[in-house]
Amino acid sequence: MDLYARINILDGRAVRLPRGNIADAIPLDADPVARAQSWAEQGVDRIHVVDLDAAAFGDVRNRPLIDQLVSETEIDVQVAGGIRSHVEAKRLIDAGAWRIVMGTAAIEDQNMVWDLCREHPGKIVVSLDVRPDEEIATRGWTQNSGRYLEEVLIEMASAGVSAFLVAETGRDVLTSAPDLGILRSAMESVDEPIIASGGVSNLEHLEALLNLGTVDRRLDGVIVGREVTAGRFSVADAKKLIARGPTVEAEVAAAEEPISLPRLAPLAKQLQEVADQCERAAAHARTAADRMLEGDLDAGLAQTFSAEGHLRVASDVFTDLSKRHSDYAGRRK
Questions:
Q1: In the prediction, which pLDDT does 226 show?
Q2: Number of compact structural domains in the chain
Q3: Which of 256, 289, 323 is the last residue of a domain?
Q4: pTM
């Protein structure tokens, strides 16, 4: 499990956000670049930097500072906050960002996610803020998306997203434990890396995250910040615990779990998507035939290309199913 250090940047300064509210931001450091270098020296694996001005106000004043942070930090830096276009995603990747993270934009414009994943494989991460009932919240927890964790994970994984950040809405890291149920649901829904982005309040909670999962699947990372700077534990403490690995009891419990079939609900949803896309393709194909019989070649070809597009989507879903469930027969043995 990798240890990420979070740096929130607001108006050129590193800040802390109690309960995620930007109006209550507490200044921490006037030099985010030096802060990133300090985290690296302490031994974190990667830096997670969030541009709060871009996220909240669409203001890119911090981008030159973030470019500097990326170029002057020796470990990988993933950048989040206000990435809402192909142009900005490409610019950050070209500037050296290890990965870029999309939140609300990924939920509201899934076509853009598909395009970016094709253009920048391995570089696109989606961040999900999850309510207790597993509905995805958007726009800084202020809106309900009407979409739920499992379906969004499956759709984004099909698009080619390289990893997911999962956090619980409204949680204060210093007073509340991580919701292991939400993280477990995420790990069971997709094969892509799941990173707990809500932080942990103490080493006991970090150990719980470390023990989460099965013999074959563990949480891939955790993002920490103010729990370390508030003195709850040190990076060295966290790295020592992570290096030790899951407890013996957790390993035994995981080993004794029966090998289960892949979850059927995600599989069924993907197959339903195939059926829907094929039905749309059939409708376009019928319309194409009618238009051509009427002598309207241009309209017929347009409908033909639309049918082809739906069939390509269905084919992509089948490819993902093949990759995701290639070990199906082996698990039955």
A1: 79
A2: 2
A3: 256
A4: 0.74
